[in-house]
């Protein structure tokens, strides 16, 4: 397994009675797989991404965490069925992100709504995928950290389900303000990328005329 290879993972999307679907990805297997092998399920990291991102932002980290003893220099990955995992990772796409529901649209996206989604997804994941897991930790990046902290502090029952919380680069004010502007942000990035691409082609053409040897390389 090279450094750019993503470890095997499973999709366990959750759909609620409201019709809202949330895209959930699991690295390391669900409890049923360990129970079948007569093994104790390892702890779980439940991850929330930042604004404008998706659960895939945790894929590289997940690959390294579930197989920490892997030697990257040998180019050989461990078999996903080997019982060597010390931690599992689950991440989901928040509302209006990735492959999850876009119900309500970005204009109506609020921290409170994302908190409610987080609470519902966490409960569903714990009950259906990890009912026998003794320790579940929440990891939140940027907006995801704000969502997690606010939701957990609001519900004692939810807090009792969690063994710990890890926060990465949480800037709540900026994250909240950015929610309603993600579409225009991505549109601007797309336009700028097209402009930069044209400028780069022009630069390469000039370089080819002045330094053809360097351009050929």
UniProtKB/TrEMBL annotation:
Question: What InterPro entries does the annotation carry?
Answer: AB_hydrolase_1 (IPR000073), AB_hydrolase_fold (IPR029058), PPase_methylesterase_euk (IPR016812)
Quickly give the catalysed reaction.
[phosphatase 2A protein]-C-terminal L-leucine methyl ester + H2O = [phosphatase 2A protein]-C-terminal L-leucine + methanol + H(+)
Matching Pfam families? Abhydrolase_6 (PF12697)
What is a single molecular function from GO for this protein? protein methylesterase activity
Q: What is this protein called?
A: protein phosphatase methylesterase-1
What PANTHER family does the record point to?
A: PROTEIN PHOSPHATASE METHYLESTERASE 1 (PTHR14189:SF0), PROTEIN PHOSPHATASE METHYLESTERASE-1 RELATED (PTHR14189)
Please give the organism: Trypanosoma cruzi
Q: What is its EC number?
A: 3.1.1.89
The record places domain AB hydrolase-1 at 46-174
What family, per the record? Belongs to the AB hydrolase superfamily.
Q: Which top EC class applies here?
A: hydrolase
Q: Which UniProt keywords apply?
A: Hydrolase, Serine esterase
């Amino acid at each position: 397994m090279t450094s750019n290879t993503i470890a095997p993972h499973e999709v366990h999307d959750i759909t609620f009675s409201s019709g809202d679907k949330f895209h959930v990805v699991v690295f390391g297997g669900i409890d049923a797989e360990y129970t079948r092998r007569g093994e104790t399920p390892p702890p779980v990291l439940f991850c929330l991404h930042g604004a404008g991102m998706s659960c895939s932002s945790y894929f590289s980290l997940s690959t390294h965490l579930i197989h920490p003893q892997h030697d990257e220099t040998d180019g050989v990955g461990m078999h996903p069925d080997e019982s060597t995992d010390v931690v599992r990772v689950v991440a989901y796409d928040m509302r209006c992100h990735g492959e999850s529901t876009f119900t309500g649209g970005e204009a109506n996206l609020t921290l409170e709504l994302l908190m409610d989604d987080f609470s519902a997804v966490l409960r569903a994941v714990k009950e259906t995928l990890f009912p026998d897991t003794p320790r579940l930790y929440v990891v939140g990046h940027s907006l995801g950290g704000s969502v997690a902290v606010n939701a957990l502090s609001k519900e004692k029952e939810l807090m009792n389900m969690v063994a710990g919380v890890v926060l990465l680069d949480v800037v709540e004010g900026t994250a909240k303000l950015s929610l309603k502007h993600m579409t225009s942000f991505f549109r601007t990035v797309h336009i700028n990328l097209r402009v930069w691409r044209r400028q780069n082609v022009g630069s390469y053409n000039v370089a080819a005329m002045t330094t053809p040897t360097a351009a050929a390389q």
